[in-house]
Known about the structure:
Layout (H helix, E strand, L loop, with lengths): L2 H13 L3 H12 L9 H13 L3 E3 L9 E7 L3 E6 L13 H22 L3 E7 L8 H7 L8 E3 L2 E3 L10 E10 L15 H16 L7 E8 L10 E10 L2 H22 L2 E6 L11 H13 L16 H7 L2 E2 L2 E3 L10 H6 L3 H23 L1 H12 L1
Parallel strand pairs: 3-4, 3-5, 5-11, 6-12
Antiparallel strand pairs: 1-2, 2-4, 7-9, 7-10, 8-9
Helix pairs in contact: 1-4, 1-11, 2-4, 3-4, 4-11, 6-7, 8-11, 11-12
Amino acid sequence: MSDNESHIQQLQGFLKGNEAFFSHLSQDIWEHPELGFQEHYACRRQVDLLKEFGFQVVTPYAGLETAYRAEWGEGGEVFAIASEYDALPGVDHGCGHNLICTAAMAAARLTQQMLQHSGKPGRVVVLGTPGEESMGGKVLMLKERCLDGVGAVMMVHPSWRTSKDLGSMAVNRLTVEYFGKAAHASGTPELGINALDAVILLFNSVSCWRQQLPESSRIHGIIEAGGVRPNIIPDYTRCCFFLRSPENEKLVEMNERFLAMVEGAARMTGCTFKISPCNQPYKARKPNAVMNHRYVEAMQAQGVKVVPGSAGRGSSDFGDFSQVCPGIHPYFAISKTEIPGHSKAFCAGAASTLAQQNMLAAAVAMAEIAYSYLTDAKCREEILQDFKK
């Protein structure tokens, strides 16, 4: 029996009898959905539980009211587990963050028990990271140096399939405003400056640009304000665009090109313009191959089918974490058939029996990786070397 298999058996032994406890926690948070930076109930539930486990907890943390940092252990290396718990407007836990935070609680407890049983040094840190959905809680926490001293970091995420971390896209979110001059659209149109024309020109420019963009890049936007009445030339319009790329450097190029288009549309119509950040930009995720491999092995050892996947087209603030230290953000299945994320169907799946079963399997896998990192110098070095590539 390999060390990995031995660890998994021990972890399953520690988990045995506590499955219902963690499933109830997941269900409880599912029943109390809270939007980003308003997750008071979910934060309190986790903080109280971690204190019961013997973790030292600081909350509020990093300037965020619903963030926390919990730590247990002495000496040795530091492994961090990231927890997410915000919901979405309209679809509640349609991204399954109730499962993410519960998996984090279970993994932290199991890693703690493994260290206690072995008597080996090592510290487990749980980072409660609010506002992942476009608000960039992790980005803000990084500005407060939340990963200082941390050797590696990990979280798990629900999906319709179980797969390793295949990365995510860097994203920049921009609000564009155009300012023109109102006039009667029929009586004196020559006295107006049409801000809606500027927005339409911008959208048409983007549509042409898409033909030359790499297949992996994405740009998509909406018009948020387009005028008041048909007989009034719009003097103000506003739109919001998301720019995405799996390469951080490519996104910088995309930003420059987009800004030129914004300015060009203003020049062609005689408008002035303003560009503002819309939420936090996220960096592309950098999956660690060694941690990924261990995750796949650990899930398969528990009888969970792992399937190949394609590179993620979404974006996550965990991408910023993964650029600072080794990390992964793999997936576990909550459905036997494909369901879209950020939907009512996904929200229902996040409360299913299958979701809770695979959530706990993912927690065991996460604990196995954490324990191996903390206690196995060879494993630790392999993880670090892959990160340095």
